[in-house]
Amino acid sequence: MNCPNCKTNNIRLFHDSVWSIENGKVYQCNECTLTFIYPMMNEKEEREFYKNFNEHVKARGLATGESLENYHNKSLMIAKERMDIVSKYFVDKSKVLEVGSSTGAFLSLLQNCDTSAVEPSDDNREFSKQFITNKTYSLIEEISESEKFDIICMFHVFEHIKEPAKFLDNCKKLLKNNGIILI
What we know:
By secondary structure, the protein is an alpha/beta fold. The chain has 6 helices and 8 strands; from the N terminus they run βββαααβαβαββαβ. The protein has helices at residues 43-51, 53-60, 68-86, 105-108, 122-128, 164-173; strands at 11-15, 25-29, 35-38, 95-99, 114-118, 136-137, 149-154, 175-182. The chain has a 5-stranded parallel β-sheet with strand order 6-5-4-7-8, with helices on both faces. The model has no long low-confidence stretch (mean pLDDT 89).
């Protein structure tokens, strides 16, 4: 197995299980420090996973038959902790894209920003629309390169990306001049 970023085989086990992937493990590259999941899901597995994402969350014990609203409210605590770390990058009227937005908890804290979201789970994406001021997408590839953002943020997403350099190039094309990516 090689690092999906720098292609070296100088990797180490970082965590011995991934809740959503049978036999999945988390590895870290000793060269470029990328943390990644192996094996990655194929496209069919990803579609099925995100189609039933909330069932996977319940099976993991993060939710127990609760509504998306309750899950969202629980997620707000983590979103507020993240905001404490990154708030200095956001100014009023910033145009923000969150990749992997789940129920929109983080974006709901950006009251004075123009927000868009990428979320592959249909249920979560639909729920998050109440907090998103602009558009929601199921995949980042759906966003026109003419759409530009001041900030693109993602939390617990990058380790799932099969081709990290290509993904970052795609994100960069969506940034305004002097825009930033928060990972």
